[in-house]
Amino acid sequence: MFRKIIYAAILTALTAIFTFAQTPAPMPTPQPSPTPVSLKTILTKAEKQTIAYRENFANLLAEEAKVFEKYDKKGKAGDKRTVESNFLVYQSAKDANSISEYRNVTRVDGKTVGDNEKRAEDFFEKVLKSTTADKELERIREENSRYDKNLVINGITLNQAVILAAHIRPFFDFKIVGREQFEGREMFVVSYQQKSKSPYISVNEDNKSDKLFIEFDVDTPGSVKELGALLRGELWIDTETFDVWRERRELTVQPNGAANPFVVIEISFDYQKSENIGITPKRIVLINYALKRKDEELKVLKQTQATFEYTKFTRSDVEVKSGEVNSTKENQ
Fold first, then answer.
1. 156: three-class secondary structure by DSSP
2. What are the Cα distances from residue 226, in Å, to 4, 73, 266, 299, 316?
3. pLDDT tens-digit profile of 187-215?
4. Angle, CA of 64, 67 and 71, to the nearest 5°
5. Cα–chain-centroid distance for residue 321?
6. How far apart are CA 142 and CA 151, in angstroms?
7. By CB distance 3.0 to 4.6 Å, which of 82, 164, 191, 294 could disulfide with 47?
8. Which of 283, 50, 40 is nearest to 163 (CA)?
9. Per-residue pLDDT tens for 48-76?
């Protein structure tokens, strides 16, 4: 609240000297406290922002650097690969609501990859000749993961905070755990914990949903019949705009009814503001653990880590379209 200071100039005839007197400031009027925002309102408004995030993604460009690291049985880092690409988000020519990721790889481990422009042209020609949407999607996935060391990671860039989707949210408990400053802005910190099995979250099984869903593959011993997999995590949601700026997500399992859960996948999402576009990805880190049995005891071993980093996004002047691509799946 600003305090208004009033100065009065008083001219004395004897000395012709100006003196200034400060008028006492009025007592501040008590202001009512801001109306608390309900958790339901936060989640609903944040979901709308994630929908806008995805809709805003058509025809965006950025440079992407992916780093893949493998770990041995002792947890030491071994093989490492760096894949640099021109990352493009393009819209389907057959379905105005369908967009997909495309990566035109330019360098692998510091070495230039042939004529990447010609390869991109040839690739799109093949996609257009695909007989079905499934064939198109399969080709796109193969192209995107050509150098990814047997890892298949799709949709985590396009789909933000999928936990907030209206059809997924009922399977979770949410809680406001505090407020924090991030990138100079105040954030609601909201935790979530999956409370029951969801048809939109699958682990080591096929998911045929026509809605947005999450799919995981976890390395487990053959003796494990029931995984008891559940998701948990935290969201950082802007208190003014309700944009999601960060997310920390974990997949836990309690194999065969084990007493305590094991964390088998960790994912962190950090976002940035791209000029004239809005919230876009900045850094995504995915860590994958294998569930192993040793001396009749189950343990988790770090297997791989994939780190995705992006420059600021820009919008393409040319609308890029291909055949119909169903990209409503986040595959991890």
1. coil
2. 69, 24, 20, 16, 47
3. 999 999 999 999 999 998 887 777 888 99
4. 165
5. 24
6. 11
7. 164
8. 50
9. 999 999 988 877 899 999 999 999 887 78
Q: Is 80 helix (H, G, I), strand (E, B) or coil?
A: strand
**Tokens 């050509």 sit at which residue?**
146
Q: Are 319 and 87 in contact (CB under 8 A)?
A: no
Rg (Cα) of the chain, in Å, rounded? 26
SS3 41: helix
Q: Is residue 283 part of a domain?
A: yes
Whether 157 and 309 have beta carbons less than 8 Å apart is answered as no
Q: Within a domain: residue 131?
A: no
For residue 330, the surrounding DSSP H or E stretch is: strand 329-331
| 27 is a domain residue | no
61 within some domain: yes
Number of independent structural domains in the chain: 1
Beta strands in the chain (DSSP E): 7-11, 18-22, 60-71, 77-92, 99-108, 111-112, 172-182, 185-194, 201-203, 213-216, 230-238, 244-253, 262-274, 278-294, 297-310, 314-315, 321-322, 329-331
- In the numeric block, which tokens belong to residue 210? 């026509």
Q: Which domain holds residue 192?
A: 39-82+148-310
